[in-house]
Amino acid sequence: MADHRRRRRATRSGADAVRARPSVIIAAAAGTTLVVGAAGALNLGSSPAHRDGTSARVASAPSSAPATTAGSTVAAATAAATRGSARSVRPNWAAGPVAGGSGATATAAGSGGVGGFAVGGGAAVPGIGSVMMSRVPRDARQVIVVSGAGHDASINNVTLWQRADEKAPWVPYGVPMTGRNGANGWTETHREGDLRSPIGVFGLTAAGGRLPDPGTAMPYEYRPSFYQTAAPQGEPMADAFNYVVAIDYNRVAGRPPSDPARPLGDQVGGDIWLHVDHQSATRACVALPQGELVSILRWLSPSSHPVLVMGDVADLGAEL
After folding, report:
1. Which end of the chain is more exposed for a tag (fewer CB within 10 A), N or C?
2. What angle do CA 45, 50, 53 make, to 5 degrees?
3. Taking 70 as the threshold, does the pLDDT of residue 308 lie above it?
4. How confident is the model at residue 177 (pLDDT cuts 50, 70, 90)?
């Protein structure tokens, strides 16, 4: 998680956090289209407004301190125990048409499918099994794969893939890159502060940064006052948010990265971005050297409906 919002969220009352989930249920009852997970956070509308606060937010440097051994053990045990059936209630997995394009619609927290998208079809991205591929939208033409060697790995391999159309094979773009993720590795049940990056398929619909647009086709929010950290200039952390790409985990797709909305509540975390590497593991984000992130920004195209597939090798390669 990007820590620039941590202080504001820490002051929010428990009652506010509890109220977040009922709002989701009410929206579902009203027939609002919900997009959660693969290619989307909870999307409450077809064309989200560009909402930008008027006051500058003071950022604090993300903590790189690992969780306690006991905490890590509990997190790992919880993830292992909840694999499979628990996927129906995670923001990693979306509601909507089920895999195979049958047109059936799941509940707001339903299992399988990608809300608002037809899923499946076409060849698989090398190294990605049928579980993850079933959640890649048919119209996706660009995929970023972030894969860790193990469930607790904080170093990852990043590859870019593209295709001409949904029936065309996926071909690599550029060369493999090395990135960082959460200090404690990966999880299928991400929680705020667990220092693990969420496993899943997520849309990429907005970018921004402390520096001007480097030439991306993505909607770009240039806002130096927001994308700063408390680190002194010259330290690696000071440049962490020079450029960011919002990962659509527990956020309203299409809104700028600075948008504070967390439709599923604070408990499951949020503010998970691709951002500039600060030479240490992250809280949950994926970090890459600045030059490589700029190359990715220039490659990404909204018309190609880009998605990010991330997790450890075993989960990414899982078969149905």
Report:
1. C
2. 125
3. yes
4. very high
User: What predicted TM-score, i.e. pTM, was given to this entire model?
Assistant: 0.70
Each residue of 133-155: b (16+ CB within 10 Å) or e? bbbbbbebbbbbbbbbeebbbbe
Closest by CA position to 90, among listed 228, 189, 11, 171: 189
Distance (Å, whole) CA 199 – CA 68: 22
**Domain definitions of the chain by residue range:** 3-50+67-316
Average pLDDT, the chain: 73
Indicate the length of the chain as a whole number: 320
- CA distances from residue 66 to 50, 71, 140, 181, 282 in whole angstroms, order as listed: 35, 10, 35, 13, 10
Q: Which residue, 220, 301, 298, 210, is CA-closest to 256?
A: 220
C-alpha dihedral (189, 155, 77, 6), degrees to nearest 10: -50
Average pLDDT over residues 212-231: 96
Q: Using CA atoms, how far apart are residues 300 and 268, in angstroms rounded to an integer?
A: 27
